[in-house]
């Protein structure tokens, strides 16, 4: 007997990374399926044994996770292009007539070990088709391995070359060195060379620990002693279980030639004509239209018969699903496809309060359905049958949590919060894996255009979807979505899912082309779950303090209004732009006024700021009044109404795809606009408080954009100052104004500080003059002196502007494309604004990238360390946590370490932490 066992799960990943991207006719990625199918075809020709099977992993969780809950815990989700291919590889195995074997709770490697050892013990031979290092412990007389990509045998010599020991000692070496890929701990500081030396000297792990008393004192000996339990656990984790149950008897694995009709039909459906020709069988399905083949690496199989996705199916004929059996059929269809688009319809915009009125699914372009749950009818338009939410979620649960099916959303964070709230108690795990077409677009085109579904559909599909207004009406005639008739609701909602799926097929391949794939997969997509968790957590506010603050702001505004009326010479409505324009430009005759299309004078913030910078007091006072009025309405008044009645906390919503630089924004409430250095801003922060028994912990990057400027512009003096921990503003003042740092007067330092931060944002001489209460001429002298001392900064700004003019975008230090609108505008004012944006975007965007990297890393580390704290808010360069009082200090230290290590620059990153009962106290 010669049993051939193909490590199906291992080969999928190798084939995926070895071959270029390619798609089936419906847009489904198939490069791994093509590689697998081609390998099987070649293998049947060259290496067939008497018995054959393909072994797969049934899921991530196995008995090893019960032994060690962190086993493989850090492994990322498979790439989204790979997820739908898992099911197709199983289809390929069935088409060839080869038994496929998997067993819940066991890894494929254990099943391979059990089959291989049983065959060898009976005097037969087993060939394992895999290059997985973990399987090398099985090599012995009667068991060999074959690398499926290189088509080279792996024997004892190859094992010794890799591990320094024979196959019988591999588990001892792995126990000592651990495995970062599988999160096997091992002994810190012991790598493969030291591990193999110890095993060769002492025989095995037990021999090593028996010899500990005779070893000379050393760091290695101390590590072995301190981590003995981890080493012994690691050995148990890496040992493959020869006693695993055999799902199919070996006799049922006897090889039979494939059924040519069945295999030919499947190859034709997939478009794998070259493989069919190689096997001398006919690809029986109609040949779809071809596309030019992707460029393949040398030696790879030709891919000219791969196909472009079809997106010309009509946006119509969608199904309304009102029967659980029918819904189960859709779920089965989605699981077989390996991917689907999901969209929810709600009766509100707050995902933590809104009810799900229905949801839609799409399994391929043009194939979508809508599932109504809470629609309301009337006598003229009765709803008829619809599904109970809990029952529908019970049917959907296996799909939503299936790791082998990619769930595609447009604005995934919203839909996930809605679905998980609707399915509370029904699904226990997270909805995973996911993709988000909004973020896929944003990761490669921030600032180039909007990333809403309607705009993306128009831009990339040439299609205008049904609008919400068309479905629900407008103005007085608008009705809640729950009262939209089911035909119209289906047309609208199912189309959303259909459009989302089609967008994914087009936009996702562009991530690799635009060099944005790692940015999306390692930063933007993982952040969805982080932010959803933060939004669900919310933050407590002091309602009494807010009401007190509102009354105080109102009193101060009344005093300011009296002063403004006196300055204007008469009373007028401060909230009326028309009346204000008449005061400023008709009566006071201030220069620079511009009329709008309506004929009224423009009095927006930019117009008032320009007047204030020219020395006019009234516009400056109006700006102060407006700021206080905005703080009152946005925070002091609104926060009280935004308290969730269920949680008694305020839940902001983080917007992930709004800014051109990658920064997050937030609304309801907008936390980004709370003033940082004013008394009012501090008072608002005092209203954000910790729950009883807890404190708030703030962690804030110190001068991160200045540090990035020193890094990207390569300014030696600034880099030296940051490296030595000097006062950067005093150092700048010393360099620019030629004064000693010791004994420097506060005014000189303040001027340098204003220049340092102003330069980042392209401040004008008028703007700096306004800040420092000096003349524009003196301010220009300061700016010129700054650039004369740091010419590298001017060079950097010019180079980024040139980059924006040439490409339309600039890059952050981490590869994010920040598109700059108006960089070639003929209007000097708009062009100048765009140039300032271009200079600042790599700094502001780089800071956004760094804090996002930290946010993605923190939850896993907090979970690993058993920290009970919750991350609540992200505002500019600051993260805010709520922690039990007893763990606040430990949390602050850990967060500081993670944030400071989120990126490696030529200057150190510094994080300042604070702890307090309120945000103001911690900030």
Automatic annotation (TrEMBL):
Cross-referenced Pfam families: 5_3_exonuc (PF01367), 5_3_exonuc_N (PF02739), DNA_pol_A (PF00476), DNA_pol_A_exo1 (PF01612)
Family: Belongs to the DNA polymerase type-A family.
Domain 5'-3' exonuclease residues, every copy: 1-256
Described purpose of this protein according to its UniProt entry: In addition to polymerase activity, this DNA polymerase exhibits 3'-5' and 5'-3' exonuclease activity.
Residues covered by the DNA-directed DNA polymerase family A palm domain: 681-887
Annotated catalysed reactions: DNA(n) + a 2'-deoxyribonucleoside 5'-triphosphate = DNA(n+1) + diphosphate
EC number(s) recorded for this UniProt protein: 2.7.7.7
PANTHER family xrefs: DNA POLYMERASE I, DNA POLYMERASE NU
UniProt record, GO biological process: DNA-templated DNA replication; double-strand break repair
GO molecular function: 3'-5' exonuclease activity; 5'-3' exonuclease activity; DNA binding; DNA-directed DNA polymerase activity
Keyword DNA repair annotated: yes
CDD domains: DNA_pol_A_pol_I_C (cd08637), DNA_polA_I_Ecoli_like_exo (cd06139), H3TH_53EXO (cd09898), PIN_53EXO (cd09859)
Keyword DNA repair: yes
UniProt KW keywords: DNA damage, DNA repair, DNA replication, DNA-binding, DNA-directed DNA polymerase, Exonuclease, Hydrolase, Nuclease, Nucleotidyltransferase, Transferase
The protein, known as: DNA polymerase I
SUPFAM superfamilies referenced in this protein's UniProt entry, alphabetically: 5' to 3' exonuclease, C-terminal subdomain (SSF47807), DNA/RNA polymerases (SSF56672), PIN domain-like (SSF88723), Ribonuclease H-like (SSF53098)
Subunit structure comment from the entry: Single-chain monomer with multiple functions.
Domain 3'-5' exonuclease: start-end pairs: 318-512
């Amino acid at each position: 007997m010669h049993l051939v066992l193909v490590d199906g799960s291992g080969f999928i990943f190798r084939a995926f990374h070895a071959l270029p991207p390619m798609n089936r006719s419906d847009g489904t990625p198939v490069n791994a399926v093509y590689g697998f199918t081609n390998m099987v075809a070649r293998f049947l020709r060259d290496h067939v044994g008497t018995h054959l099977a393909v072994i797969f992993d049934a899921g991530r969780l196995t008995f090893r996770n019960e032994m060690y809950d962190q086993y493989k815990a850090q492994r990322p989700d498979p790439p989204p292009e790979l997820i739908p291919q898992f099911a197709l590889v199983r289809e390929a195995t069935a088409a060839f007539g080869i038994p496929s074997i998997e067993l819940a709770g066991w890894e494929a490697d254990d099943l391979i070990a059990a089959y291989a050892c049983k065959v060898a013990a009976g005097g037969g031979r087993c060939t394992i088709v895999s290059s997985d290092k973990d399987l090398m412990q099985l090599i012995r007389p009667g068991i060999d391995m074959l690398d499926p990509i290189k088509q080279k045998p792996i024997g004892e010599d190859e094992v010794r070359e890799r591990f320094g020991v024979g196959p019988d000692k591999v588990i001892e070496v792995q126990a000592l060195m651990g495995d970062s890929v599988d999160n096997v701990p091992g002994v810190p500081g012991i790598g493969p060379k030291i591990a193999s030396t110890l095993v060769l000297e002492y025989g095995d792990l037990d021999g090593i620990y028996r010899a500990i008393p005779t070893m000379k004192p050393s760091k290695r000996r101390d590590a072995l002693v301190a981590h003995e339990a981890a080493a012994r656990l690691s050995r148990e984790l890496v040992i493959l279980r020869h006693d695993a149950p055999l799902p199919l008897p070996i006799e049922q694995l006897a090889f039979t030639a494939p059924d040519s009709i069945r295999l030919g039909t499947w190859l034709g459906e997939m478009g794998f004509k070259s493989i069919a020709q190689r096997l001398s069988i006919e690809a029986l399905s109609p040949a779809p239209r071809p596309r030019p083949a992707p460029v393949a690496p040398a030696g790879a199989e030709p891919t000219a018969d791969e196909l472009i996705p079809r997106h010309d199916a009509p946006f119509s004929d969608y199904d309304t699903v009102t029967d659980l059996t029918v819904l189960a059929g859709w779920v089965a269809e989605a699981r077989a496809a390996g991917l689907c688009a999901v969209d929810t319809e709600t009766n509100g915009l707050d995902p933590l309060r809104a009810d799900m009125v229905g949801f839609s699914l799409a399994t391929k372009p043009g194939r979508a359905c809508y599932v109504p749950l809470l629609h309301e009818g009337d006598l003229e338009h009765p709803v008829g049958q619809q599904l109970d939410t809990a029952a529908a979620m019970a049917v959907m649960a296996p799909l939503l949590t299936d790791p082998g099916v990619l769930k595609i959303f447009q604005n995934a964070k919203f839909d996930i919060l809605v679905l998980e709230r609707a399915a509370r108690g029904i699904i226990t795990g997270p909805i995973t894996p996911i993709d988000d077409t909004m973020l896929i677009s944003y990761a490669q085109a921030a600032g180039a255009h909007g990333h809403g579904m309607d705009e993306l559909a128009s831009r990339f599909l040439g299609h205008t979807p049904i609008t919400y207004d068309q479905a629900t009406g407008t103005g007085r005639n608008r009705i809640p979505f729950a009262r939209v008739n089911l035909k119209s609701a289906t047309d609208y909602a199912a189309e959303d899912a259909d459009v989302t799926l089609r967008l994914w097929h087009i936009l996702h391949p562009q991530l690799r082309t635009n060099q944005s794939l790692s940015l999306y997969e390692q930063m933007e997509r993982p952040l969805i779950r982080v932010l959803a968790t933060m939004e669900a957590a919310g933050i407590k506010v002091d309602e009494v303090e807010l009401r007190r603050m509102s009354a105080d702001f109102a009193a101060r505004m009344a005093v300011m209004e009296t002063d403004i009326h006196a300055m204007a010479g008469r009373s007028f409505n401060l909230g009326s732009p028309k009346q204000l324009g008449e005061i400023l430009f008709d009566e006071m005759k201030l220069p620079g006024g511009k009329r709008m299309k309506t004929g009224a004078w423009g009095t927006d913030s930019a117009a008032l700021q320009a007047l204030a910078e020219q020395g006019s007091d009234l516009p400056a006072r109006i700006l102060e009044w407006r700021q206080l009025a905005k703080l009152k309405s946005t925070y002091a008044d609104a926060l009280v109404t935004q308290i969730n009645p269920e949680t008694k906390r305020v839940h902001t919503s983080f917007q992930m795809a709004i800014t051109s630089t990658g920064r997050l924004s937030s609304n309801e409430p907008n936390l980004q606009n709370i003033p940082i250095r004013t008394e009012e801003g501090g008072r608002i922060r005092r209203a954000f408080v910790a729950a009883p028994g807890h404190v708030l912990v703030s962690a804030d990057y110190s001068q991160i954009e200045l540090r990035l400027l020193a890094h990207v512009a390569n300014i030696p003096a600034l880099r030296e100052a940051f490296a030595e921990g000097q006062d950067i503003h005093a150092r700048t003042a010393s360099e620019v104004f030629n004064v000693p740092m010791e004994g420097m007067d506060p005014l000189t330092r303040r001027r340098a500080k204003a220049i340092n931060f102003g330069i980042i944002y392209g401040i004008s001489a008028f703007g700096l003059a306004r800040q420092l209460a000096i003349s524009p001429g003196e301010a220009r002298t300061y700016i010129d002196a700054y650039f004369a001392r740091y010419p590298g900064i001017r060079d950097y700004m010019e180079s980024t502007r040139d980059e924006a003019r040439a490409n339309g975008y600039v890059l952050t230090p981490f590869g994010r494309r920040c598109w700059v609108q108006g960089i070639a505008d003929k209007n000097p004012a708009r062009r100048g604004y765009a140039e300032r944006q271009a200079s600042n975007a790599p700094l502001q965007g780089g800071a956004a990238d760094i804090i996002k990297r930290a946010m993605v890393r923190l939850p896993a580390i907090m979970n690993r360390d058993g920290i009970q704290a919750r991350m609540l808010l992200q505002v500019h360069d600051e993260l805010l946590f709520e922690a039990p009082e007893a763990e606040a200090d430990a949390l602050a230290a850990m967060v500081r370490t993670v944030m400071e290590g989120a990126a490696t620059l030529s200057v150190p990153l510094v994080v300042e932490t604070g702890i307090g009962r309120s945000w103001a106290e911690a900030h």
